[in-house]
Amino acid sequence: GGLIFDVDSSMGVGKVVAIYSGPPTSSAYMNDLSVDEYPFVETQDDGMINTQLLSGVYDNSVYDVAMNFSHKGFLDWYVPSITEAFKLADSYINLKFRDEFGQNIIDNWV
Question: Of all helices (H) and strands (E), which one includes residue 63?
Answer without folding.
Answer: helix 62-67
